[in-house]
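Weekend entry, working from home. Most of the wet-lab plans are on hold until the incubator is repaired, so I used the time to fold the two sequences that have been sitting in the queue since the last round of cloning. Logging both here for the record. First:
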Amino acid sequence: DLSKNNLEGVIPSEIGQLQNIAS
């Protein structure tokens, strides 16, 4: 999943990491 977010951009990857921590 992180790799997919990296393809979309740095910001989406950061958001994804924050969501993983929040969940």
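Second, folded right after the first finished:
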Amino acid sequence: MMDRREYRTRIREVTPELKHKHQMEMVEEAWKLFNWMHNEMKKQDRLNDY
């Protein structure tokens, strides 16, 4: 477990710009995952049709 003070210091070091970039990357990853899951479900539906 990380020390709380150490954690706060690290948060302060992260610039808003970097934070924003990181958030965008997270959103992108989430979308990729969502699309992949959607495609997998479609495949399953197609298999069930036969």
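Plan for Monday: verify the second prediction. The radius of gyration is 19 Å.
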